[in-house]
């Protein structure tokens, strides 16, 4: 199959801004589809450089030198421009211009590449614009990665996003959810979906190393936080729980990685007078190196559609502390970690302390993570694509 992926790419692959787990997912999906002998092109809207080939798949960004001007001008429809203005004008002039530019690029790229399948990784913007571009003979698939634009925006903006999501939902024939939890959240906020849909969990790349249960890491008990430095993800709650735990386990250390913007978090650490036990490397290139040094991952997130970071840690045999907002299949039992209320600092601290003395079976933790590997999951995407080719487009 010739597959056009619409999404973002990781910053280390040339993106001008970070876009979290979706970028990692798009990159890895493209890699594994290519490994399965499909032809893949990624149109990355957070990349402005020239077109390049990574391994066997192509990356195209929003650069004028990548724009097939003739095909774009030939296939642009004035009613589509009007539709875009109508749909996005509540978000302001800048957003409208951004979406029109995206439409022009996508129009040219779509008609130049002539894909068998188009897969848009997000409903609000990419999928809706793609629904105006992609013809009825090409299946257009959307993956819903979260509803945080509704649940974590102020009420007026949340309603604007909800309206746009409802439009995109109505235009969707084929929809992938990254968890059953997210399916329920989407149905709660946007409504039920009567098209072709399936839950396909996010996946991880296997590491080669097998974990030994008696493997020693460091003399200190090292906690690791990996994620955005936001209230939703829980970086400040992690620090507070570590401070509380330190009163009971004096050889604790916390390492915080995930972002370049460390100034605010470092000030908080200084104000709390815990610089001796909390360090902030910030954004790192080789996160696996930090996983291999850690004893426990702590990410007390208030909302999580899937929670790839927990599986990445478990790949290294590391137990995890997540929350009741993480889908249960990711952290299914206390043999791999804990799910606790996200705002209960005392309980987070208690499980940190308990983990210090618990006998973990690190190989079993790694085996659980490997059940979510791309080797296990890629065939589900291929089958969903094949099914979409057999279903006549109706919207």
Automatic annotation (TrEMBL):
EC number of this enzyme: 2.4.-.-
Record domain Glycosyltransferase subfamily 4-like N-terminal: where: 20-205
UniProt cross-references to InterPro entries, sorted A to Z: Glyco_trans_1, Glyco_trans_4-like_N
Keyword terms: Glycosyltransferase, Transferase
The keyword Glycosyltransferase appears for this protein: yes
One Gene Ontology MF term: glycosyltransferase activity
Broad enzyme group: transferase
Protein's UniProt keywords contain Glycosyltransferase: yes
A Pfam match: Glyco_transf_4
Occurrences of domain Glycosyl transferase family (ranges): 207-368
CDD domains: GT4_PimA-like
Domain of life assignment: Archaea
Protein name: Glycosyltransferase family 4 protein
Organism: Halorubrum rubrum
């Amino acid at each position: 199959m010739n597959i056009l992926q619409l999404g973002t790419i990781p910053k280390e692959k040339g993106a001008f801004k970070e876009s979290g787990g979706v970028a990692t997912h798009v990159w890895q999906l493209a890699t594994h589809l290519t490994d399965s002998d499909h032809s893949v092109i990624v149109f990355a809207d957070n990349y402005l450089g020239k077109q390049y080939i990574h391994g066997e798949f192509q990356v195209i960004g929003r650069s004028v030198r990548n724009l097939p001007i003739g095909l774009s001008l030939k296939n642009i429809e004035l009613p589509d421009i009007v539709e875009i203005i109508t749909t996005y004008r509540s978000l302001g002039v800048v957003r409208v211009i951004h979406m029109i530019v995206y439409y022009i690029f996508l129009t040219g790229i779509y008609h130049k590449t002539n894909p068998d399948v188009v897969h848009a990784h997000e409903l609000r913007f990419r999928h809706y614009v793609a629904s105006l571009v992609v013809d009825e003979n090409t299946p257009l698939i959307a993956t819903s990665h979260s509803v945080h634009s509704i649940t974590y925006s102020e009420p007026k903006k949340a309603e604007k996003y909800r309206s746009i999501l409802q439009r995109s939902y109505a235009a969707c024939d084929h929809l992938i959810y990254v968890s059953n939890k997210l399916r329920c959240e989407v149905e709660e906020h946007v409504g039920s979906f009567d098209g072709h849909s399936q839950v396909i969990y996010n996946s991880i790349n296997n590491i080669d190393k097998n974990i030994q249960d008696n493997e020693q890491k460091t003399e200190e008990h090292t906690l690791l936080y990996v994620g955005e430095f936001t209230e939703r993800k829980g970086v400040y709650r992690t620090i507070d729980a570590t401070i509380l735990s330190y009163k009971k386990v004096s050889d604790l250390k916390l390492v915080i990685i995930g972002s370049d913007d460390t100034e605010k978090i470092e000030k908080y650490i200084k104000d709390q007078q815990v610089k001796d036990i909390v360090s902030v490397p910030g954004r790192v290139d080789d996160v696996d190196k930090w996983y291999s040094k850690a004893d426990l991952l702590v990410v007390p997130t208030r909302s999580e559609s899937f929670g790839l970071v927990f599986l990445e840690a478990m790949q290294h045999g590391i137990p995890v502390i997540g929350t009741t907002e993480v889908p249960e299949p990711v952290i299914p039992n206390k043999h791999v970690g804990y799910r606790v209320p996200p705002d209960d600092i005392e309980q987070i601290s208690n499980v940190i302390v308990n983990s210090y003395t618990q006998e973990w079976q690190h190989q079993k933790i790694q085996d659980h993570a490997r059940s979510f590997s791309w080797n296990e999951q890629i065939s589900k995407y291929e089958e969903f694509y094949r099914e979409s080719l057999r279903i006549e487009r109706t919207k």
